[in-house]
Design brief:
single chain; alpha+beta; Alpha-Beta Plaits; 3 domains; eight-stranded mixed sheet; five-stranded mixed sheet; 27% strand; binds zinc ion
């Protein structure tokens, strides 16, 4: 425990105090399952800590070895974890299939990849460190469902029982024989370890004759997910495990309770959100994606800034004074961008390229940056720092360019061009930004009415609506 104290003291050096307190309390008092795949946003909400500070604290905790970070590919349908890895580099398939939902999905970083934190064995051992020793119900809770499924803490077992006909442990290379009575409902035989499902549509006349079904689990090929039709009545089910894994197959009824159980969702830390987090970028500078890896993001907001007339500034006040001023302006930009859930991707001369998970955060940051620049000019009794800001939102690819996690695509080009259209102190944003519901709410609350500029971006987007945010 002395080692833990040392580690938490180290965490306190780099992370927010209340976030550190919440994490330390969780490690000391939390139940085992609460320390497996911790949902950063959920923990922040429960502890009453700012989300960005909690994410940063957990990242520092992972860096210090208190927690282990994992990147999980999720099924958008059932919220199940389809694949898990310690790095985003392993998310390399063009499609991930969910047997439970009988559906394949192309991975995107918006909602399909979550980032969770599990306590490290050297800090505290929990049952999930050995998943093969978890009970079938706990395996479902801790290993199958993602941190975005809002499983009820108190009534979880009751709800699971209400949808379960049978649930067993099946040791490696063993066979189990189950005798059960099929109700006249849609039934799913599902094993969350191998992700295999067999659907049975139970309908028609009640039979007294024993029906039989054999399901073989193997590593090499999953049984077909074609739906079988059976009658209500007795079933002899043989489950054969030809893998070297402990399986936890169950027979479930796809009824309303199951839909209710799977339909409960809560916000979670997405890969997109983490990539655009400043602390993450600072800690994992280059080691996020492979050189040839490209991952889709459906919606990311880009903000570009540039100093107007910086050449004249250097001439007027001299290099030394100008350097300090420009440095001060960079520091302010970094702080505001990070506080609004954004991250600086790169600086190009006096220009900055930043990303945000949503348009409203980018607008909030832009307004704060403009205010801060006014104050900075007042302090120096000059008009030296005149910033031009452009914002655009759209799809892009997360890539590695020049040893840096960067973004690629037309959205990035347009954002940069929109910024180039801005004059001093102006914030220009495209239609996709100001029309975003949260963004327009933010503007309305602030009594800000964007004016349409309809500036053509020749060669890229001739009819793009561009707005000036006064
Ligand atoms: Zn699914």
């Amino acid at each position: 425990m002395t080692e833990n104290r040392t580690l938490f003291a180290a965490l306190r050096q780099s992370a927010d105090a209340s976030a550190t307190d919440a994490i330390e309390k969780l490690v000391r008092e939390g139940k085992d399952h609460q320390l497996c795949r911790v949902n950063a946003l959920d923990l922040a909400a429960r502890a009453g800590v700012d989300e960005e500070r909690m994410i940063a604290a957990l990242l520092h905790a992972a860096r210090l070895g208190l927690f282990e970070m994992s990147w999980n590919v999720l099924c958008p349908g059932c919220g199940g974890v389809l694949d898990t890895a310690s790095s985003l580099k392993s998310v390399d398939r063009s499609e991930y299939a969910c047997a439970l939902c009988a559906c394949g999905y192309e991975p995107t970083l918006d909602e399909m990849v979550e980032v969770t934190f599990t306590v490290s064995p050297r800090v505290r051992t929990i049952a999930a460190h050995e998943p093969a020793r978890l009970s079938p119900a706990e395996y479902c809770r801790q290993m199958f469902w993602s941190s975005g499924v809002d499983l009820p803490e108190a009534s979880f077992e009751k709800m699971l029982e209400a949808v379960t006909l049978e649930m067993i442990e099946l040791p490696p290379n063993e066979k189990a024989l189950l005798s059960l009575t099929l109700p006249a409902e849609f039934v799913i035989v599902f094993d969350p370890v191998t992700h295999t499902a067999q659907f049975i549509d139970v309908k028609g006349e009640l039979t007294r004759e024993r029906q039989t079904l054999t399901i073989v689990y193997s590593r090499t090929h999953a049984p077909t997910t074609a739906t079988l039709t059976m009658h209500p009545g007795p079933l002899r089910l043989t489950l054969e495990n030809r893998t070297d894994l402990r399986l936890v197959p169950g027979v479930y009824i796809a009824n309303q309770t199951m839909h209710d159980l799977l339909g409960r969702r809560k916000p979670f830390l997405t890969a997109k959100r983490l990539l655009t987090n400043q602390t993450f970028r600072d800690i994992y500078r280059t080691d996020t994606l492979d050189v040839d890896q490209r991952l889709k993001i459906t919606s990311l907001t880009f903000l570009f800034t540039d100093l107007k007339g910086s050449t004249e500034l250097y001439e007027r006040v001299g290099d030394l004074v100008a350097f300090d001023l420009v440095k001060e302006h960079f520091k302010i930009l970094h702080e505001i961008i990070a506080a609004e859930a954004g991250a600086v991707v790169k600086t190009i001369g006096d220009a900055v390229m930043a990303t945000f998970p949503t348009p409203d955060r980018a607008i909030a940051a832009a307004l704060r940056i403009r205010e801060a620049m006014l104050r900075l000019n007042d302090k120096h009794r000059s008009e030296d720092l005149l910033l031009k800001i452009g914002i655009h939102e759209g799809p892009c690819l997360a890539v590695t360019l020049n040893d840096r996690q960067d973004y690629f695509g037309q959205t990035v080009n347009i954002a940069s061009r929109v910024q180039a259209l801005a004059v001093s102190r102006s914030i220009l944003a495209t239609g996709s930004v100001v029309d975003n519901p949260q963004a327009s709410e933010l503007l309305e609350t602030g009594g800000i009415k964007p004016t349409s500029r309809r500036l053509p971006l020749r060669g890229i987007a001739d009819d793009l609506a561009v707005y000036e945010i006064p």
